[in-house]
Structures are given as structure tokens and as C-alpha cells.
Amino acid sequence: MTQFPSLYRGPEPGHLPALSRLPLPLFVLQPILARIVRKVAADEPSVFNRLGPHKHTRYIIDPANMPFVLQLHPDPDNLLLRACPRHDLPDHDARISGKFFDLLQLVDCDQDGDAMFFSRGLDISGNTEAVVSLRNALDDLDGSLAARVADMFGLPGRAALAALRRAAGYQPPEA
Known about the structure:
The chain has about 180 residues and is of the alpha+beta class. The protein has a domain at about 25-140: SCP2 sterol-binding domain (Nonspecific Lipid-transfer Protein, Chain A), CATH 3.30.1050.10. It is about 40% helix and about 15% strand. The protein has seven helices and five strands, in the order ααββββααβααα. Strands 3-2-1-4-5 form a five-stranded mixed beta sheet. A hairpin with a 4-residue loop joins β1 and β2. α6 runs antiparallel to α7. It is globular and about 35 Å long. The model is unreliable at about 1-15 (pLDDT under 50).
């Protein structure tokens, strides 16, 4: 019997699925991102205390291999998380850049942000004290922030996170 190679091999670990490279109207993401940031703020109001004066910082989270960036303003009185075109960056005080899957691992499992930075997996610019404050505030949350977000969307959210984990080639420690 002749063996034929499989026509579908699935994504190589660390490669983004083809859908992530398609043009996406950013307005589709805005209500999802708004829901995420409001829910996290409602569930974890103490995160703002952990940020201290940096809750007024304007952050750019830049998944370098995606067609957009995220703008985060964690001020509880003016909370904002939105997608912005890469070519039109909003004003910001601090920027965190890295590959999408590296950033995902930071919010999904016990990935060491310092090790990623020193191995050049992350690029930090602007107010580095604010970035360290944000990382420490997120590290103080119990469990995976990515899993919490996925749970907000039920079975489809958990399936999407599982697919992203497989595509990235990792499983979180408690999964």
C-alpha cells in the first residue's frame, strides 16, 4: 500500500495560525477588549493599588507579529484596552513588545518576564518602572489571566485558548 504524505500538517509550534495574518477590522475587537478589561477590573480591583502611580500610565502592548497593537490605560476612572493600527500608535508612556506567543505565555503561565527580557524575547521602552509595576501587579493575580479571559467566553473561549497553546507548543503547568 502506498503512503501519501499528509496534506495537512497543522501549524508548526510558534507560528501564528493563518487567520491571525488576515486583515481584521479593529472595530470587531473593541467590544471584546472592553469586556475583558472591565471584567478583570471588577474581579481584581486591588490590581490598581498594586500599580500605584502607574495606574495612570498609557501602555502599548505590541505583539510584533500581529497587524495591530493594544493600548492599555489601567486607570479605574478611565479604563481602556483597545486595538490600534500598528502604523498609527497612540501616545504612550511605556511599550512592551514581543512575539504574540511570548506575550501570551506571560499572561498564561509562570513565564519569567525578566528572563524573556534578558534573552531579547521582550523589548521594553519608555517608562520601565511602569512596566515592572504592571508585570508585578499581573504576577500577583492568582492563576492564569489568559484562562480567566477564556472562561469569560465559555467553551468557545477555552477552545480558542487551547488552540493557541497548541500552536505555541506549550501547556501551562497546571493544565
